[in-house]
Amino acid sequence: MQITDVRVRKVSKEGKMKAVVSITIDDEFVVHDIKVIEGEKGLFIAMPSRKASDEEYRDIAHPINSGTRDAIQSIILDKYEAALIEGEEEA
């Protein structure tokens, strides 16, 4: 599996959510609405989810194992950091 495209949309309002990201896998499959969140231990990603009838949030799409999650998170956070630097250069 290759992440072939990452699109970062920074969130301008204050809060823990810093960006919303879409990734393309193998130039064939897109996952939208991955969130970049600032937590107590730093940045992490939250996969797209929706609220179930029991008021709990359930992931709509997610990696099956931690290695894949770590790889996706690493790529997304690298692109997010690059987008921040690019935004500072434009300012």
Automatic annotation (TrEMBL):
Pfam families: SpoVG. Could be involved in septation. The gene is spoVG. It comes from Anaerosacchariphilus hominis. The keyword Oxidoreductase does not apply. Belongs to the SpoVG family. InterPro entries: SpoVG, SpoVG_sf. This is Putative septation protein SpoVG. The keyword Manganese does not apply. GO terms for biological process: division septum assembly; sporulation resulting in formation of a cellular spore. Gene3D superfamilies: Stage V sporulation protein G. Keywords: Cell cycle, Cell division, Septation.
